[in-house]
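From the pipeline queue, job 12 of 40. The input is one protein chain; the requested action is below.

Action: predict structure.
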Amino acid sequence: MVTRSSRLRSQLGLRLTTSALGAPLVLVGSLLGCTTQAPPPSTPQARTPTPGTVTRNNPAGDAESPVDAALTRLIEEPIGEKADRFRTYRPLFPDANNWKRVRFWGYPSRAGFRYGKDNYAVSVLIYEEADNDDPNACLTAFAKRALNTARLFDVKLGDIERLERPHLRGIEAVDMDALIADELRVFEQRQARRKQGRERLVAMLERGKRAEAARKKAEETREAAKADESTVETEKKKAKPPERRRRFGLSWLRDRLRHHDVQTEAMEKRKDDKHPVDHATTARAIKARGLSTMPVLLTSGGFETLSNRDRYLAAIVAHPSWPGSCLVQGIAVKVGTDEALAKKALDRWLEKAAPKSRWRWQLREQPTYDTR
């Protein structure tokens, strides 16, 4: 008789290679022990693809050891930003351009990502409402649900390690109403200073116009006097008074006034916006609130079916989030011929990428709990 568990395992095994359905399970579950003997670690040559063969679907290119080649890129390539479908959260990944946003069938999430068509690494982002929004409580609640899912599919769990990492605070830590009010006060003060500056520019321009008119009139007088030779000879004998050098010419003053009015108009448009807070102001407000804590769960092992015997190292982290919500992210990296490469790739994400992932600074209110 075919049991329910065996049917589920069979379905999962068929879909794991063509979709990211198995990713949420791999993030927290593992089968202890591998029935096959581990191959020897790959050489650097086997991990190096031919230039030009690396693509988004296959970041390993034509390398002889594709898993190790993909892990090498996760260890060495620069870290960059991705975005969820709603353009609200920006998780960071190594070699970010080769991560693709995907959907996990049957597992609604804020966002899902995979590294390569063969799932060299997968990541899922869960954002939901919570009664207890403490990151540790969020991580515990998500882990319990994941364990129940793992039991449903007869996934045996390996040892789980719990630790913490510092995390940069984001826009969720800022009181936007107070920040906007402060920015508006600063804005009004700047506008008052700009008004005074314009008045000074106008006064300088008027004085310049009067001086220019007087100079032209004097030139006309001198030209008329040149007709009288006696007057000319008399002027030569007189010492010519030095001309006063003007600091600012009329053309410079006119250009400065036009530039000033353009800037003032831009500021007025900004004042009409709903949230006149720029990135620099937001960054200073966030920095003043210091670091937060990111709890982490680590596990190891692999998910094994009749058609799939890949092994993974996985981690789950709870990011700081808005009040009354939880933001949890899981990631799993495939193990190739050398588990040390997978560990380095996972550690790099935990140390360099996850602590800097953040909500977009352009957000001015808490996002809704949309999933896909």
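Job complete. The chain has nine helices and eleven strands.
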